[in-house]
Amino acid sequence: MNNNLQLPEPFVALSDFRKNDIYLSEMEPDQIISDLFPATFTELVQRLSDITGAFYGGMLKQTEQLFGAEAVETLSSKFMYDLGAKMALRNLQAKPDLQPGIPAVAKILIGAVFTSSPEYSFEFKELNDHKIEMLILGVDRYHKITQSLGISGLLKWPVIQPFIQGVCDTMGLDVLLNIKVLEINPDSSCIYQISIFKNKY
Q1: pLDDT digit string (tens) for 93-103?
Q2: Could you tell me if 83 and 56 are in contact, meaning their C-beta atoms sit under 8 angstroms apart?
Q3: Residue 200, pLDDT score
């Protein structure tokens, strides 16, 4: 062990995850950690996001090759919807005081950006019991990976629309959901306008 070597801050903070690792006696754990563990939390989060994007894109590329181009949008849409439904369910179970409704949808979307989509930022324009108006801005990792794989043209953008629908449906909300692509650029920087209205009878 090299006592003069300073371990990366993220490793120290997250060391509980690594407490069961066992190295061989001839290995130098501190050097390996210093060389390979992300040096900053920003780098760690970005790497995790890149892996998520790569997994999504890789699965869709294989889908195109195995089942044809038309299957790509179907798989993406169903996967995103299921992901939104699961996230809503997890939040409702973890936060029993979270009453299903438009404000709860807003909180789940904020949580999704915080925990799962670090390249996005959000800008709320309006929020009440009946309506959400907001912008999602940043880099769309799903566009970035599918563009690099040559399959972005097979998908309906933004691919997060079924995710939001899954959140609303799991809460039992009857809503009108509309997402406009205000901007999506070759570098995958984007601006999406999200409108969610409680359906009125």
Answers
A1: 998 888 889 99
A2: no
A3: 72
User: Which phi and psi (to 5°) does residue 189 adopt?
Assistant: -70, 145
Task: Judge whether residue 156 has pLDDT over 80.
Answer: yes
Contact 126, 133 (CB under 8 A): yes
Radius of gyration, alpha carbons of the chain: 20
Q: How many whole angstroms from its chain centre is CA 130?
A: 25
In whole angstroms, what is the distance from residue 186 CA to residue 128 CA?
35
Burial class (CB in 10 A: 0-12, 13-18, 19+), 26: exposed
Give the relative orientation of helices 70-94 and 161-170 as an angle to the nearest 10 degrees: 40
User: How many C-beta neighbours within 10 Å does residue 75 have?
Assistant: 17
Query: pLDDT above 90 covers what percent of the chain?
Result: 89
Name the token pair of 8.
């990366």
